[in-house]
Amino acid sequence: MSCWVVNVGYKDLKTIVDRDKRDWVAALESQKAVYLINDTATGKMYVGSATGDNGMLLQRWKNYVSNGHGGNKDLVSLVAQKGFEYVKANFTYSILENYNSRVGKDYILQREFWWMETLGTKAFGYNN
């Protein structure tokens, strides 16, 4: 595991994805990760993970850029209630832990669960 300090808002994340910023794209598409989405308006958080071999963290974050929720149940509900513009104005995206492509899915999911418990995102956030 290594650690990057990354904390970008929706607008910056969209710019990275849309403009195909090579330094960012190369880094994000080659890393598996546990990440955090923070709703700056409410303080609620969502912990997720990127464990797939194709696109890795870049692919997960592209999903959030495209629809605001990435298919996550509570975030789908939030976007339906408050709209995609709410996400664009209030969400930030951070990397909690990143891993090279050889790290197994089960380990990353264990770490994701640890972060959910540590940050209380099941009880007080967007992890259902």
TrEMBL record:
<protein>
    <submittedName>
        <fullName>GIY-YIG nuclease family protein</fullName>
    </submittedName>
</protein>
<feature type="domain" description="GIY-YIG">
    <location>
        <begin position="30"/>
        <end position="128"/>
    </location>
</feature>
<dbReference type="InterPro" id="IPR035901">
    <property type="entry name" value="GIY-YIG_endonuc_sf"/>
</dbReference>
<dbReference type="InterPro" id="IPR000305">
    <property type="entry name" value="GIY-YIG_endonuc"/>
</dbReference>
